[in-house]
Amino acid sequence: MVGYQDYLVVLSPESVTGKVQQLKSEAFGMIGEYESHYSKAHITIQNWVRKKPVWIEPLLPRLERDLKSLPPVVLEINGFGFFDHQEYPTIYARFKSTPLTSVWFKHLRKYFGISNFEPHIIIARTIPHDTFKKLWPHFKNLEWNEQVTIDKLTVLRRPTISHNRRFEVFKELEFNQQLDFYQFAQSKLKPAIAPKKQPNEQQFSLF
Fold this sequence. Notes:
This protein is an alpha+beta fold. The termini are far apart. The protein has a single domain (about 10-190), classed as Cyclic Phosphodiesterase, Chain: A (Alpha-Beta Complex), CATH 3.90.1140. The protein contains 6 helices and 8 strands; from the N terminus they run βαβααββαβαβββα.
């Protein structure tokens, strides 16, 4: 019988996996070992910690059907940023936010019941502030502009209690390849509301 499991739901930008690992290696050369050094490039969507498989896994077929309403998403990497968690900041590769990407993520979030978040790829997670001050000047002015297309959502899994703390791929759920990202997002954007015409006091009704 499978015990409690940790699940991690992610988007995997596979086309930039090598680039992200190269950046992590550069960071390692500057500051030494750090958390997330060996983690594969991903965008976290949701984290389900200490769950029984009988709670989570029956939900996946419905999620798989729901995701067929979404096209693969097209994102644009646009440099780097950081989360200032006081003593332990996190450096990440950021994505350019547009109305099209925002509406796509809005539809994805509704399947998970989660609030808005900033999609990103972590480079160096929760590093000491002194270490951050050494590393951030390198990434601050580093240019990285690249378009990535992500065509599936990945569910990772690991035992909650185990010597092996690495997540393994449990399920991959594809988006609808027949849908175009740009057409889909444009169709979901709310049309601008035309301003109401001011009444013309000179007009009169014939009826």
